[in-house]
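PROTOCOL LOG
Step 1. Enter all chains and additional molecules of the complex.
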Amino acid sequence: MSDLAVYIKLGWRNLGLHPLRTGLTVSALALGIAALAFLAAMNDGWLQQIKTNFALTLTGHIQIHAAGFESSRRLADRIRKPAAVEKVLAAERAVATWSRRVRVSGLASTAAGSAGVSVLGLQPGRERRLSRLAHFLKRGRWLKPGDERAIVLGSGLAARLQADLGDKVVLMAALDNGDIASEVFRVRGILHSGVLDIDDFLAAAPLARVQRWLDLGEGVTDIVIRARSFRDVDALAAGLRRKLRGRGLEVLTWSEIDPMAEQWSRFADAYAWIILAVVILVVLAEVLNTMLMSLHERTREFGLMAALGARPGQIFAMVVWETLLLVALGGLVGSFIGVWLAGYFGRVGIDLSRFAAAFSFMYMDPVVHPALKPESLLQILAAALFGSLLSSLPPAWKAARLDPAQAMRVI
Amino acid sequence: MIPALAWRNVWRNLHRSLITAAAVALGLAALLFLWGFNDGVHNSMIRNLQEVIVGSIHVHARGYFHHPQLSRTVPDLPAVLRLLARRGISRYALRLRTFALAAGAETSEGLVLLGIDPGREARVIRLQEKVGEGRFLEPRDRHACVLGAGTARSLGLHVGDEVVMLAVDRFGALAADKFRLVGIIDSGEMGIDRGLALVPRRMLASMLSMDGRVSEVVIRCRRNELEGLNADLRRRLDPSRYEVLRWYDMYPVMKQWVELENAFYYIFLSVVLFIVAAGIMNTVMMGTLERIREFGVMMALGCARWRLAAVVTLEAVILGLFGTALGTGIGLTLVAFFKHHGIDLASRMTTVRRFYIDPVVHTEINLDHLTLTLAAVMLAAVAAALVPAIRAARLQPVEAIRHV
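Step 2. Run joint prediction.
Step 3. Record the structure below.
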C-alpha cells in the first residue's frame, strides 16, 4: 500500500472515530461555504440587476449608429437603410429584440414657456419590449402604434413647460441642411424615472412622425439592441462589428456609450469585493478556530502515536491529510447547500421593500434575485481549501513536535 | 460559588478561552468594519449631496419649491433670521432664484439664475471647490458670474467673456444685464454643470427690483441636529406662509437609495452574524467536548446538573463579554484607522462623483448600527452556549469519566 493511500485511510478512520467532532468541523466548513456562496450570489445578482436596469432604462445593451454619430450627434450621420442592418440582427441568436430610434436635441415650447429637450422618435410597440421607458409612465398612457402627434414627456420637463395631459407642445429642431422645422404634438403621457437626464429632458414621440417632421425618409440615428442575456453583450457586439464591417456603421455597448456607468459598476465591484473578502476572512477564522480546538483536544492522542514510534513527519502529514478530507467533505456539502439556496432565492427573490420604503425607480429593484456565477463558487472553494490548509499547518506542526511523555499526561 | 467556578475555569485553560473569545472578537470586529464601510459610503454621499448645493434645510414661502416664481419670496425675512440667531445657527445663506436666458456670442440657453452672497455661501456649501477654471464669486464682485461647464461649452463662452442675462423682473418687465464670466464649475452633477448661473445676490436683486427679498434661506446643520431643527422651524413658522423642507423632502432619491442598500446590508450581515454565531457555538462545543471527563468527575462528586449547566453558560457569558469588548476595540480601531487613511476604491475614476460617491471610502459607523451589532453578537454568544450547556447537564457521570 502506498503512503498516500495509508494517509487517506488513516485520516478517514480518524474522522470516523470522532463523529461529533468531525460533524462539527465539517458543518462549520459547509456552513461557511454555503453562506459565502449565497452572499456572493446575492451580491452578483443585485449588481447585475442594477447594471441591467441601468442599461435598459434608455441606452439598451448595444447601439448601432452611422459611424461618428455618437460624438457628432448630427442628423446627417444617420443610418439610411435600417432594414439592411436588421437583416443581420434577425440572424443573431443572442439578440432578444431591437428597435429603431431617432435622437435629436431641440426646443419645446408651450404657452407657458420653453425648454431644451432631447427628442426621441421611437417605435412604441418594440420600445416597450426593449427598454424600461414605458414602465416609468406616471400619468396618461404610453405611445400606441397608430399614434400620430402624441408625445410623452419627462416629469421635470412637463413641470417646466407647465404642460399637462392633452396640452399642445411645439417641438423645434434643426434639419441636416440647417433649416429649422417645427411640429405640433399633444401630451399623452408623463413619465418619472428618478433619472435626471430623462425626467428633465426627454420628449418621446412616434418614430414615423419624427422622420417626416425632420425629413429623414427611412433614416434613423440608432438601432438599439437588447441582448438575451447580460453576459452575451460583449461577444455579441464583437460579432456584430465583424459582420457589419465596411458599411460605415459604429457598434457600441452600453458601457462604451456611458463610461460613467462602466466606472460606477467597477466601483460597485470593488466595493463588493472588499465586503466579500472580509466575510471570507471571517469564515476562514471560524474554521481555523474549530480546527485549533479540535487538534488541541487530541494532544494526548498525538502523544500516544509518537510514543508508539510515529515520526514527526508522519504525524504532520496525517493532520494535513485529515484537513484535506475535511475540506473536501465540507466543500461538497457547502457547495450543494449554497447552490440550492442561491437557486431557490434566485427564483423566489428577496423582497427588500419590506425593509425599506417601497419604491421602484431609477436603477434599483426592491426585489433581489441572487445569481451564482460558477467562478465565484470556485473562488470561494479555493479560498476555503487554501485557508483551511494554512490553518492546519500550525497545529500540525505543533502536533509533530510534541514531547510524547508530556503530551500523554495531558487530560 | 458558580461565578467563582466559572471564572476559574476560564483562566484554567487560557488557550481554550482565548480561542473562544477570539472567535467572538474577530466576528464582531469584522461586522463593525463592514458597517463602517457601508455607513462611510452612505454618509459621505449624503454629505456630498448637501454640500454641493442643496444644504440641509430650506425655508421658502409656501408653495415655492413646486412652483418657483419670483414673486414667492420669504414673507418675513428678519423674523426668520431672528429665529435662526436665537437657535445659535450661523451656517445659513440667502439666495434669490429666477429663470433667465443667457446669451453668448451666437447662441442662447435657458437656465436658473441664482443670486448668492459669496461669503455666506461658503459656510453652507462647497461648490467653490468644484471650480474647474477661473475662480468662484468673491464678496467684492459686482457684474461677475459663474457658469456650469456644460452651459459655458454650449454657449461658446470662456473665462473673461461677457454674458447677457435676460429675465423678467418683479413688475413683469424684461430686464437685461451684462455679467463677466469669472469661473466655470465642473462638478460632475448634471443639474449644476448644465443650466445654472451664479451671480452676486445684490446685483441680481437690483436687476430684478427685488431689493431685500430672497427666495430661499438655506441652512446647513449636522445630521443629528437635522430633525430637531426642522421640527422647531416648522413649529415656529406659520405653515400657511412658509414651507420648511429637509434635503430629502426635496430630493428623496438619495435617502431611498441609502435605505434600500441598508436593507440589503441587513440581510447580508445577518448571514455573516449567523456564521459568527455558528463559529462561536462550534468553539464552545469543542471546548465542552474535550471536558466531558471533567464534567463526569464533577457530577460524580455531587455537582447538580443545573449547576453544571449554569457554570458552562456563565463561562460562555464571560468569554462572550470579553470577546465583545475585544471585538469592539478592534472594530472601532479599524473604523477609526480607515476613517483617517481611507480605502482607495477608485480614485482614478472621476465620474463616480456624479453619484456623489467619494472614490476613497472613509469608514465611519452610525450609533444605531453599532449598538444593534453589539447586542446581536452578545446574544449569539450566549445562545451558542446553551446547546453545549444542556449537553453537559445531560451526561451520564460513569460514561463521561470513561470518555477519552
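Step 4. Note key features.
The first helix of chain B runs from residue 2 to 12.
Chain B touches chain A through 58 residues (CB under 8 Å).
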